[in-house]
Structures are given as structure tokens and as C-alpha cells.
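Quick one, probably user error.
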């Protein structure tokens, strides 16, 4: 008789799960000089969840973090693009998902629609700490 050994993926999650490990674990920025990720092993696994929850702590208030996504189907990293409030023209309908910390702690939620991996690239190497989690709902 087979013995159930437990699930090996997150499955459907209601509570956001930290993608860096245990709750409270901060992420490592992929790059602090603006360089995009290139290797399939860069970034963090999302287990194909729908939402990315991001919290950043920046003591300098000038760090911009760009979010990249990787899909195994394309075998490429690309900037996560999000809809804008503009008039809907092709050039203005989407913009790169970037966050700039204006206060010590800020949080954002992005729809990553099942991307396989995410990576975070900063424009400078100042004192920025980021936390990320993924969820289905």
C-alpha cells in the first residue's frame, strides 16, 4: 500500500508564503546596479502562485526596485509589466513594475499570473531590505 508523503508544492494558498524561506526572511536583491537577471536559477520560485506581496524597507528613500519574471515556457527573464491609468494606447497601456520607497516601510501587491520565478533588481546598493511572499488568493 502506498504511503502519502505530503505535498511538495504550495498548492493553493490563502495566506502569503515567504518565497525566501521562513516567515520574516528577507530577500537578496538580484542586482544592485540595475543589471537584469539572466540565468534560470536567478531569483526565487513562486510555485506558480497568482499574487506577489512585496514589502520594502529603505532608509534612503531613493531606491527603485524593478520586478522581473521568468516563465519556463519562454526560457527568458522579462520586466513585469503592469497596467497604467493612461488612455489605453499601446505605448502607454503598460509600464514596468517598479517600486520606489518613499517611507521606511511600504507594501505592494502585484498580479504575477503564475510566473515561475521572480527576481528583484535595484538601481543602487544602499540600505534596502525587501520581503516577498506569494499567494493564490
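Nope, works fine. Designed sequence:
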Amino acid at each position: 500500500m502506498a504511503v502519502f508523503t505530503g505535498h511538495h508544492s504550495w498548492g493553493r494558498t490563502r495566506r502569503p508564503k515567504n518565497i525566501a524561506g521562513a516567515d520574516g526572511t528577507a530577500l537578496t536583491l538580484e542586482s544592485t546596479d540595475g543589471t537584469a537577471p539572466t540565468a534560470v536559477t536567478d531569483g526565487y520560485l513562486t510555485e506558480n502562485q497568482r499574487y506577489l506581496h512585496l514589502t520594502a524597507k529603505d532608509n534612503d528613500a531613493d531606491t527603485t526596485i524593478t520586478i522581473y519574471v521568468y516563465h519556463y515556457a519562454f526560457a527568458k527573464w522579462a520586466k513585469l509589466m503592469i497596467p497604467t491609468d493612461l488612455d489605453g494606447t499601446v505605448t502607454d497601456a503598460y509600464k514596468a513594475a517598479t517600486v520606489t520607497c518613499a517611507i521606511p516601510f511600504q507594501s505592494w501587491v502585484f498580479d504575477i499570473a503564475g510566473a515561475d520565478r521572480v527576481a528583484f533588481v535595484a538601481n543602487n546598493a544602499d540600505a534596502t531590505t525587501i520581503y516577498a511572499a506569494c499567494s493564490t488568493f
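The mean pLDDT is 84.
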